């Protein structure tokens, strides 16, 4: 929705709870809803059903119950399967690509992905079941699962030549489609030369909302120029500080750079994240 119809305020107790949670657990390293929140579920369903299909077909089993009843996903997997000239080769390639990616992660992260797969000899577990097995909170398990999925998606997009099988499952989901509809409208106006204040006025949105959109754009569009929103030297110093103190906590960085806005700090961190993953 373009209109901000409600504003939610965090209570003092809520802030304390969030702060304690961040100190104890924090957000997983690769969690990136800014890039993938609109497409990660689609990619995951394609991957799990494709894995299930290959697992059965490579053993000559043509009858099985798919893990998802989503007609659009099933239709996509059917077309994808027809493009595979050799089921054994496709199965082996997918296994190799996943094995290589998951071996770059911690065992907990890999377990949250692998144990959710369903094949001929395995019934996929739920995130709650796997979390209990790993002795972690289900919510933390869910965040770590998403973080691992986002790691895989970004690696596959950025190194598509190395992961052709996985890239074939995400190719049509990349680029502009990763932006939310509302952010895409803001991006269009930015490219026409409108300022943040002008866009907020035209779209009847708060300035903070437009700034959120710009941070999202900077995460997804690697060539997006952020210099109109902060001086180059300021951005350089903020990036240096974030690296030195080893944190992405806005408050800690803000204390070192009181003249910078939280929006500017978020922009630098977003650009820093993109450059680290390139």
Automatic annotation (TrEMBL):
Q: Which InterPro entries match?
A: Helicase_HTH
For the Helicase Helix-turn-helix domain, which residue ranges apply?
A: 182-269
Which protein is depicted? Helix-turn-helix domain-containing protein
Q: Which organism is it from?
A: Bacillus carboniphilus
Q: What is the lineage of its organism?
A: Bacteria, Bacillati, Bacillota, Bacilli, Bacillales
């Amino acid at each position: 929705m373009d209109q901000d119809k409600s504003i939610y305020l965090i209570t003092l107790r809520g802030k304390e709870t969030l702060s304690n949670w961040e100190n104890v657990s924090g957000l997983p390293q690769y969690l990136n809803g800014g890039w993938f929140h609109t497409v990660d579920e689609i990619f995951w369903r394609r991957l799990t059903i494709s894995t299930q299909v290959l697992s059965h077909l490579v053993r000559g089993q043509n009858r099985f119950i798919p893990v998802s009843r989503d007609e659009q996903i099933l239709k996509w997997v059917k077309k994808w399967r027809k493009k595979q000239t050799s089921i054994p080769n496709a199965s082996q390639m997918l296994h190799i690509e996943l094995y290589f990616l998951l071996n770059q992660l911690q065992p907990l992260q890999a377990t949250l992905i692998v144990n959710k797969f369903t094949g001929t000899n395995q019934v996929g577990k739920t995130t709650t079941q796997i979390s209990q097995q790993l002795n972690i909170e289900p919510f933390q398990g869910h965040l770590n699962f998403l973080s691992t999925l986002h790691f895989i998606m970004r690696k596959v997009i950025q190194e598509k030549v190395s992961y052709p099988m996985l890239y074939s499952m995400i190719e049509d989901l990349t680029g502009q489609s990763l932006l939310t509809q509302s952010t895409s409208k803001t991006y269009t106006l930015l490219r026409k030369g409108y300022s943040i204040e002008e866009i907020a006025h035209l779209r009847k949105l708060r300035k903070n909302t437009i700034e959120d959109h710009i941070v999202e754009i900077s995460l997804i569009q690697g060539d997006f120029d952020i210099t109109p929103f902060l001086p180059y030297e300021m951005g350089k110093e903020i990036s240096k500080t974030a690296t030195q103190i080893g944190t992405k906590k806005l408050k800690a960085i803000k204390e070192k750079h009181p003249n910078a806005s939280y929006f500017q700090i978020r922009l630098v961190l977003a650009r820093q994240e993109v450059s680290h993953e390139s």
